[in-house]
Design brief:
Layout (H helix, E strand, L loop, with lengths): L28 E5 L3 H13 L3 E5 L2 H7 L5 E5 L7 H11 L3 E6 L4 H9 L4 E4 L4 H15 L8 E3 L2 E4 L4 E4 L2 E2 L4 H10 L7 E2 H8 L9 H14 L5 E4 L3 E4 L3
Parallel strand pairs: 1-2, 1-3, 3-4, 4-5
Antiparallel strand pairs: 6-7, 7-8, 8-9, 10-12, 11-12
């Protein structure tokens, strides 16, 4: 992964063979996934110099094997063995590991596809190293586990916070982390209108309304997975509400 400003050089610290769970406060276990071995190694070493416990892999297969030992994955979507979006989906649906997608493709469609696949944020090359550090910290603030709450039922829809699972008519509906957080917010309680700004603040911890298009992306995905657009109604100019069916 190449940044717009050069990464710090002349580091002689070797990559740790294992991710140490005893990291300093404010540090994260970071898995760098990039097919360019030198770029992956350099970025991991730069992250280590900023007190993060970072290691690097160069294939999608290795990312799928090792992501569960990381707090956040810096995932280059352009990998030779497995499509990066498929890796995003797998990580988002099987673990609580955060994913920061990194790619040279910066079109709106590319961003939408990345977010729909489960990425928590999306960075386009070339990027600044300081920006990357800030985005990692922001993603991890949002991804920290929230206190368990009681399960909720909305007709045949069952939302279980403790296990972060959703069932509809007894069938498990696989959701990404953000999709689950969004659905839970709309269901607390169901029927109430949740303003777009509130959704952006409480699910994405963001206040920049220019980024609110991601809400529409996730609403569309939720409607599709729930099997009907009637579950979530759009209140034009205001926000959304979950309807008991």
């Amino acid at each position: 992964m190449h940044a717009s400003s050069p990464l710090p050089s002349h580091s002689h610290r070797a990559l740790s063979p294992h991710l140490d769970t005893r990291v300093p406060a404010g540090s994260w276990r970071i898995l760098v996934v990039d097919s360019d071995e030198r770029s992956a190694r350099d970025l991991a070493q730069s992250l280590q110099r900023h007190r993060h416990d970072a290691r690097a892999v160069t294939t999608g297969a290795a990312a799928l094997r090792e992501h569960s030992d990381a707090d956040v994955v810096l995932l280059d979507l352009d990998l030779p063995d497995i499509d990066g979006l498929e890796i995003c989906r797998s990580i988002a649906t099987t673990s609580d590991t955060a994913v920061l997608a990194v790619t040279a493709h910066g079109s709106e469609l590319d961003r939408v596809l990345g977010l729909q696949a489960g990425a928590d944020d999306y960075v386009v090359k070339p990027y600044g190293f300081r920006e990357l550090l800030a985005r990692v910290d922001a993603v991890m603030r949002r991804a920290r586990p929230k206190p368990a709450a009681m399960s909720m039922r909305v007709g045949p829809l069952h939302i279980e916070q403790a296990t972060r699972t959703v069932e509809l008519h007894g069938r498990v509906i696989p959701l990404t982390r953000k999709e689950f957080d969004l659905l839970q917010l709309l269901a607390s309680p169901p029927g109430e209108i949740v303003p777009r700004r509130s959704i952006l603040q409480r699910v994405w911890h963001d206040t920049d309304m220019t980024r609110s298009r991601t809400i529409d992306t996730h609403i569309t995905s939720l409607r599709r997975k729930l099997g009907s657009p009637d579950w979530i109604l759009t209140v034009r100019g205001v926000g959304f509400r979950l309807v008991q069916r």
